[in-house]
Design goal:
CATH class of the largest domain: Mainly Beta
CATH topology of the largest domain: Coagulation Factor XIII, Chain A, domain 1
Number of helices: 4
Order of helices and strands: HEEEEEHEEEEEEHEHEEEEE
Largest sheet: 6 strands, mixed
Number of strands: 17
Radius of gyration: 24 Å
């Protein structure tokens, strides 16, 4: 599957193999403990979203490093041609460092597993050991800080990065987006309908898509959009249909009047003055 909207060869020698996605057991444990832990890990359902499966996982950061101070705030969205990989960092509470592995799951538009096999979107085995970690020092709670550079993929699309532990099973999952610049998207701030109350409470995004570089038979049906507020998935707007199709210009217009493309503003910080205890400052009640 190739996205239109957004927007190493190796020789391996191994003594034995396990099926991809199968938790690796600890050979030092008794057979009874291995069986119980493996069966417990296999019963955990995989959620195709950003999710934590274990309370021992903390401080998850999935971003694109840019050598900037705030690069950890960058969403895991990269173009297919970008050399800089997506980086995953997280803390795992405990006194020992388990042998963790990660894998990628290629998903379709609705975030369900696609029919592609691993070799179609990866150039290496789809099981990445997490060997880079740091040990906590002089902390009240012992933990290990893991870092993984996600390997590059060969196809654009939706990917789910899954990390698992042989003892705990699934630990975390994170959504990644890989895109190709095949269309041009023009975005403008809109004015929500509904009077002054709506204007002060909502933020509206109007946009159009120029698909002149792509051959589409039915652009209104072939183009699928996802509108997110600050890279959030919980309140995303899916499958917005174009309000007007300009066939001559090969442009799709998206301008709505019923809040389909509007989000609550959610003002989190308001100014208030508490410098004086003798008098009420600005925006301070009695």
């Amino acid at each position: 599957m190739r996205f239109r909207l957004l927007s190493y060869p190796a020789l391996l020698l191994a003594a034995g193999c396990v099926p991809l996605g199968t938790p690796i057991t600890n050979p030092d444990l008794p057979a009874s403990q291995q069986a119980s832990r493996t069966s417990g890990a296999a019963t955990q359902p995989l959620r195709y979203l950003d999710y934590l499966y274990s309370p021992a996982v903390r401080s998850v950061q999935c971003y694109v490093p840019t050598a900037q101070v705030n690069d950890i705030l960058n969403p895991p969205i990269v173009p297919l041609s970008q050399e800089q990989p997506v980086v995953l960092e997280f803390d795992l509470l405990g006194t020992q460092a388990p042998r963790l592995t990660a894998k990628l799951v290629h998903c379709d538009l609705g975030w369900t597993p696609s029919q592609l096999i691993d070799t179609q979107f990866l150039s290496e085995i789809n099981e990445f050991p997490l060997t880079s970690y740091q040990i906590s020092v002089n902390t009240k709670v012992d933990y290990y800080h893991y870092t993984l550079q996600v390997p590059r993929v060969k196809l654009s699309g939706n990917y789910l990065l899954v990390v698992q532990d042989p003892a705990r099973g699934l630990l975390l999952s994170r959504r990644l987006l890989v895109y190709e610049n095949q269309v041009v998207i023009n975005i403008a701030q809109g004015v929500p309908a509904g009077g002054l109350d709506a204007r002060y409470a909502y933020q509206q995004v109007n946009f159009n898509i120029n698909y002149s570089a792509v051959d589409l038979v039915n652009p209104a049906a072939e183009v699928h959009t996802v509108l997110r507020q600050n890279f959030r998935w919980d309140n995303a707007r899916y499958n917005l249909r174009p309000t007007f199709v300009r066939d001559a210009d090969r442009i799709l217009e998206y301008q709505y009047f019923n809040y389909e493309n509007a989000f609550p503003g959610l003002s989190e910080y308001r100014y208030f003055d508490t410098r004086s205890l003798q008098a009420n400052g600005l925006n301070v009640g009695r």
